[in-house]
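Today's session is about reading a structure prediction critically. Students often jump straight to the picture, but the first step is always the sequence itself: look for stretches that repeat, for charged clusters, for runs of hydrophobic residues. Only then move on to the predicted structure, which in these notes is written as discrete structure tokens rather than atom positions. Here is the chain we will use throughout the hour.
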Amino acid sequence: GGSSGPSLRDLLAWCAFIDTTGPKLGVAAAFVHGACLVFVDAIGLHVASARTERAARRRRCLKQLRSLLPGGVEPKPVHAGAEGVPIFDDATASAGGAQPGRRYGLHPFYVPMGKRQRTPQNEQPFALGAPTTRANAYRVLRAMQLRKPVLLEGSPGVGKTSLVQALGTACGHRVVRINLSEQTDLMDLLGSALPVEGAAAGTYAWHDGPFLAAMRAGDWVILDELNLAPQPVLEGLNACLDHRATVFIPELGASFACAPSFRVFGCQNPLQQGGGRKGLPKSFLNRFTQVWMEELDEDDMLTIVRAQFGQIGKVLLARMIGAIRAVAREAGARRSFGARGAPWDFNLRDVFRWCELMIAEQEPPTWQPAQFVDVLLAQRMRTEADRDALAALVHAELAAGDGEMIEQAAPYLASLQPEVHVTRRHVQVGHAWFERSIRRMPAPEHLEILPSQLRPLQALMTCVRMRWMAVVSGGASSGKSSLVRLASRLAGRALTEVALSAATDTTELLGCFEQSEPSRLLHAALRAVGEMSADASLSLLTIGQRHREADEAFARRRTEAVQLATEVQRADDALGEIRDGTDGTDGGAESAEAWAARASRVEAALQTLERAHKALLIPGQSAALEVRWAAQVAPTRRLLAEMGELVSGGVRGRFVWVDGPLVDAMTRGEWVV
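Below is the predicted structure for this chain, in token form.
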């Protein structure tokens, strides 16, 4: 693993492993497994090497370990369970009379079962039948025989986090995943004293962070991207990770001990992949049992993908996996194309996305994986030549063995301009489509679509339809933000734009506690009234839109609805000055009378909306409409009441939680760029 030599902690871990597993495995086998645990499983960490080189080093280590055994002593052969299938095993009663309990693992390494029940909701889809995956799981289970935390390192997509989550679910333990970054501090992990929302001024209470809460509850914790964490966070976790197994909270003046079932797993990508990663101090790494997660080969990937997408067929899946591996080899290792934007990483996640697209958009048995090459793979490339080269390579791999000639695959793909179809209810660009929201239909002049935008727009719309996060890359002034705005306008969805920088803090995205202010309450009420007005106007103007009979009652109702929609729009427009801050209260803009006047104008709009709501009610068919109306208007009136209390002087210094733009957009179902 690149270490200069064994430390005292390494030797103690080796001895502890022999002491723990010797009665089950035999001393010779425990001796060899313990050495593998401490030294051999870490081969690949810290030093970049090829898979064949790592395998050769492991064989040399095992040969040397066997030579250290006394003459004639051989460790018992140990295998990872029949066909790699997870094994439930009843533990034998100990000499102290403990009751038998259930364990989970791969023979001969098992983990005690927790109290959490396995359900379809928390079940993690994970295939332990793949040889490399089974070997990785075997190493992790071997590492879990000691109480030390476990550090998993490996290439993206190898299954570090998902392996721990799957093991935790199978073992009946809750798994808490915490993503670390350069901005993470100890307060994010351990907790802090926060204002009590709605309580008297100056009232604070301690709130456990996710790490401390999991530590006290005995859950499993995944510290993801461990080599991105700042040094103060690593130092603050030291006491939790060694023999002390405690954490001291200065704000509370108390120490908290780790629960018996508490486990810590660190996951990280190799240092050479960059992205702000740094080498962790050796003193910190020494507290972990380090395990290198081998990357998956073609047979592993095929076994895993067939377990989840078997309906596609083994032959076609093998070709798709071969195409992904060929692109990874040519664009990643050999750099035959894709120099701009490198380094690239194509892995099992891309195969999963490819299969998900095919199942969502196509019908068996007429699978056409080539349909999604541009959207899924080629659009990552930065130049047209790179996109052509990638498309040609993928098409050749998909056609391998059929005797078909793929001569002009890439030029054909590049020249294929997706067609655009926009209706009142749907928008389609090529094979990508989604439904439109008619609440926020933009003006026609906002919908110019340039020919150069069609292929990127098709890819972006596919990401939206499949609920995948998308990264839009390009040079300065190339139209990245404009592309997202165009897609949001076509969909009729509200778009929240947030400018990020290296100094951006998580509170700017997620929110924080702030002192309650009347302007914030008024803004929230105005936004709610605006949304209710848009809903009411649309519903009134579309009353009976499918009716073709021009009877007198229908015509009268339609006329009344149009008049009422006009009143609703006028009431909402009257609030425009307040929204813009130009409501003409210059001298006494912050006086109680000015705030009361604003509140009365909002209340007048609410009363107009109530009349519109009553006009929309249909006896016996409007229960859902009543529920939605109550859920909208009651919180708005509460905002006005709180604003009145605040400006009257009855409440001072009260803190409230204010959602950041990301959380606000998530709860409202909006888009974020």
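Discussion point for the tutorial: The longest helix spans residues 592-616.
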